Structure formats: structure tokens, C-alpha cells
Amino acid sequence: MTIKVHIRHVPTGEERVWLYDEVWDQYSEFSWIENNFSCDCNRHLVWLWAAGVDTSASENEEWSEHHCGDEVYSIHIEDADGKFLCEDQRWQKDRIGQEPVG
Does 89 score more than 50 pLDDT? Predict the structure, then answer.
């Protein structure tokens, strides 16, 4: 299943989308909200992948310079058809008070 990971760089408000093939199951939300992909160090990789950066290239070491935390990136995930799958609390807080889009 292809999922759309909307990722926001909180300090600037810039958003990117990363398309990711993943089997979405009962553990997926936990992985993104409380486990590995909930940390800024791993979300920084998602941020780079969404920009098309090849983090496996030895000349690109920007990915390794990011620290752990939960304040820099926020995520909202949906399936390829736009069906909501999950989002973190920071995404929800950032949305409060904003004008509806469209």
C-alpha cells in the first residue's frame, strides 16, 4: 500500500510529501507516533527523502547531523486515496486556529 506522509518542518512551516510503500497494520501508527519514526532524527530522513535526497550517498552526510527530539518535525499520514491514517499531536496543535483550506 502506498501511503502519503505529509511532513512539516515546524520552525519554518514548510511542508513536503513523501510517498512510501508500506504494509499498514496494527503496529504502523505506533511506529510513526511513539516509536522509531516519531523521533526528529528519523523524521529528518523522511524530510530529506521527500525532497528526493539520496541519503545512501556517501557525499551527503547532512542526514547524520540531526539530533533526537520531537519538536522539529510534525506528520500527517493518509493512504493513496486520501483516507486519514494518523497524525501526531503537534500536527493537530499547529492546525488549531488556522483557516480551512479550499
Answer: yes
